[in-house]
Amino acid sequence: MDMDTTSTRTHDDIRIAPRALATEAVHAGRDDLARQGLHAPPIDLSTTYPSYDSRGEAARIDAFAGTGAEPDGPPVYGRLGNPTVARFETALARLEGTEAAVAFASGMAALSAVLLVRGSMGLRHVVAVRPLYGCSDHLLTAGLLGTEVTWTDPAGVTDALRPDTGMVLVESPANPTLAEVDLRAVAHACGSVPLLVDNTFATPVLQRPAEHGARLVLHSATKYLGGHGDVLAGVVACDEEFAGRLRQVRFATGGVLHPLAGYLLLRGLSTLPVRVHAASATAAELARRLAADPRIARVHYPRIGGAMVAFEVHGDPHEVIGAVRLITPAVSLGSVDTLIQHPASISHRIVDADDRKGAGVSDQLLRMSVGLEDVDDLWSDLDQALGRPVRGAGNCATSHMEPAPAH
């Protein structure tokens, strides 16, 4: 569902009334600029900052070590925080409706930090629902951070919980099948265990998981938040208490976001609603055409809408990848140009084949991130790439798609 307003927040001692999400996307993180005589946010590239008050610095570092709260006063060192990155964090928290957000060098760095926070509390068990992004799946399955995972379906979350369960992890719509879960029902099943929702595909334009009971909201900011395929980043939106712990992990492990990336992400947020709405309308139309095409076995398009489409072909998916000309065959998603990839070969290759297929990621599945091109141009490219119908394949495409919500 599209969110019309965001919650009232404060910034630099100025009370900000509830504003439409499109307005917040443009102004959040920038509310103090006019008073400083600025229009564009400045980029602070400093790694360190001078201070002649070493006693004061010691007190501020002690305070950070205790709670992870952002130090008051001037910045201290780039690994503790950066003013440009902080603007992006403020803006993303406002869009997601949370108290805070903490940015990292990548989405995987962000997820790793969450696991490390919970693991440091002796809560190393994770309950997770497949499918997830392939590297998230691998990180949990391989136990690289000392975690132990129980895979279940949404109905089995409560039964899978243990005394040492640190969190429940879901992705909705999921990568790459676009399967959806009832976030409110899962949050209820979690009880006191934090629910982490990977909201990369939906973005806060289409879904704000915190409003449905999620305590942690994860984004690969590389995708829609940046929106132009030129920045690598991750971010977790959460309450201030958890944000403090995440900042401590970020400081200790060094998974910081570069200030230029923070600037690009803040700029990307300003057009996020426009981009998501436009790409979603095109994606819904392509999903409709694919579902009626005899060369397609099945189409996956979520009820919530969005700019991602997945489809299974009767023919050879690798031939489709090799035949596109306007559409770019590449991993990642959420850019202004349309991308297509074969999950079983790339994004989910690292997942065990049986687990991959059990999660609905078939060898015939293609995942397409729809950009801002003209819908007819995209369809023309898909049409020629799909080639002639496979002999014996009828028009039997099925889907779980419903009309995309009106924007």
Describe this structure as you would to a colleague.
By secondary structure, the chain is an alpha/beta fold. It folds into three domains: 1-106 and 220-270, 3-Layer(aba) Sandwich (Aspartate Aminotransferase, domain 2), CATH 3.40.640; 109-213, Aspartate Aminotransferase, domain 2; 273-399, Aspartate Aminotransferase, domain 1 (Alpha-Beta Complex), CATH 3.90.1150.10. 36% of the residues lie in helices and 16% in strands. The protein contains 14 helices and 15 strands. Strands 3-9-8-7-6-4-5 form a seven-stranded mixed beta sheet, sandwiched between helices. Strands 12-13-14-11-10-15 form a six-stranded mixed beta sheet, covered by helices on one side. Strands 1-2 form a two-stranded antiparallel ribbon. The radius of gyration is 22 Å and the shape is globular.
